Every structure is written in structure tokens, then in C-alpha cells.
């Protein structure tokens, strides 16, 4: 195996990239980033919203289960179930789940950016449901 170092007779243009080539690559990378960034921000907002909705749904189910198990009404503050300050919650601040399975009727809406997600608590069965 022989090693041939670049000798002094090799033209300068063959030793690396030209400034034009580097600029073209940087412009292409800038265009890709400009297109990809809004899509990533939207995906991040949707993920945050879905996680908050799942967390709220889980908290409501646990409260209902506690009321049924312990035989006492359980009042839950819906605002405490949302950990992300950027997510807005519209609806009643508290819900009551009763030992017979019923609950106060509630329509909750979570909003972040341009995205919304709804939850409903049925008054008769007390079951929360996520709107798709």
C-alpha cells in the first residue's frame, strides 16, 4: 500500500471546496431549516396539547374511581391537572364526582396555539371522554 501525498503540482481547485460551493450548501440548509421549523413547532404544540389532554383525562378518571371506591363525593380542581402554563383550559374550575357514578356535567376545552382539544364529562355516568 503506497501513500501519495498531495504534491505541489496538484491544482489548488482540487484541494478543497470553493467559496461558491460552500455558499450554495449554506443557502440550501437555510431553506430547509426555514421550511422545517414551522412544521416542528406545530408538531411540538400538538404533542403538548395531546399530553395535557391525556393527563386531564387520566385525572378525571382517577377522581371518578375514587368516588366510586370510597363512597364519598370527590371534588377535583381541573386547573391543577394542567401542568403546562402555555395551555389554556376553558370550562368549570372544579368538578364533583358522586359515589353513585354521576358527576357534574362539564365541557372542557384545552387550547395551545391554533390547536384545540375537547373533553366532556357525562353527568349521568360520570365518565370523561376525549373529543377527537
Explain the overall architecture:
The protein has 132 residues and is an alpha+beta fold. It has one domain (16-130): minor pseudopilin epsh domain (minor pseudopilin epsh fold), CATH 3.55.40. It contains one helix and six strands. The protein has one helix at residues 19-70, and strands at 74-77, 88-90, 94-97, 106-112, 115-121, 128-130. The chain has a four-stranded antiparallel beta sheet with strand order 2-4-5-6, covered by helices on one side. Strands 1-3 form a two-stranded antiparallel sheet. A hairpin with a 6-residue loop joins strand 5 and strand 6 (128-130). The model has no long low-confidence stretch (mean pLDDT 88).
Distance between the termini: 65 Å
Helix fraction, binned, reads 25-40%
> What proportion strand?
15-25%
Largest sheet: 4 strands, antiparallel
CATH superfamily: minor pseudopilin epsh domain
Mean of pLDDT: 88
Oligomeric state of the chains in view: single chain
Report the CATH topology name. Answer: minor pseudopilin epsh fold
Cross-sheet strand order for the largest sheet: 2-4-5-6
Q: What would CATH call the architecture?
A: 3-Layer(bab) Sandwich
Number of helices: 1
**Shape estimate:** rod-shaped
Low-confidence segments: none
Structural class of the helices, strands and pairings? alpha+beta
Give a brief outline of the structure:
Helices cover 39% and strands 21% of the residues. The strands form two sheets. The protein has a four-stranded antiparallel sheet with strand order 2-4-5-6, with helices on one face. A two-stranded antiparallel sheet has the order 1-3.
Amino acid at each position: 500500500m503506497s501513500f501519495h501525498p498531495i504534491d505541489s503540482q496538484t491544482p489548488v481547485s482540487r484541494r478543497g471546496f470553493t467559496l461558491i460551493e460552500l455558499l450554495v450548501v449554506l443557502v440550501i440548509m437555510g431553506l430547509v431549516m426555514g421550511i422545517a421549523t414551522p412544521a416542528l413547532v406545530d408538531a411540538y404544540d400538538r404533542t403538548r396539547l395531546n399530553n395535557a389532554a391525556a393527563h386531564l383525562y387520566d385525572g378525571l378518571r382517577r377522581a371518578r374511581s375514587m368516588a366510586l371506591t370510597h363512597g364519598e363525593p370527590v371534588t377535583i380542581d381541573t386547573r391543577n391537572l394542567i401542568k403546562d402554563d402555555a395551555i389554556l383550559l376553558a370550562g368549570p374550575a372544579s368538578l364533583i364526582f358522586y359515589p353513585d357514578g354521576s358527576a357534574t356535567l362539564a365541557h372542557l376545552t384545552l387550547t395551545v396555539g391554533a390547536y384545540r382539544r375537547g373533553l366532556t364529562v357525562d353527568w349521568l355516568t360520570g365518565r370523561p371522554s376525549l373529543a377527537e
